Amino acid sequence: QVQLAESGGGLVQPGGSLRLSCTASGSIFGIYAMGWYRQATGKKRELVAHITTYGSTNYAVSVKGRFTISIDNAKNTVYLQMNSLEPEDTAVYYCNVDDMGPKENYEYWGQGTQVTVSS
Fold it and tell me: Strands 2-7 and 18-26: what pairing?
């Protein structure tokens, strides 16, 4: 089993910035990718940003140019730098890891961290 420890969420004013971090620990076989998803009240969970261990990234159109995802492979930690935050970014943000198991790949999710953008 793999556990994900998230931090960095909170309340911020529109136009402000936050930096989320997520560290994977436990029975890790080999991480292929890590990412961030979010779920706003009444909406489905959606991809925010995704990054592989070799540096390939993918962003939701809504955050492109404002958010930056990065990964520290040695620490099994993924970061999400969130700039120019808007009220529409308000959601619970979930960390995700894709672990290459001995027979199949496994996905793990963090408990989520609340990001609220409000004046």
Answer: antiparallel
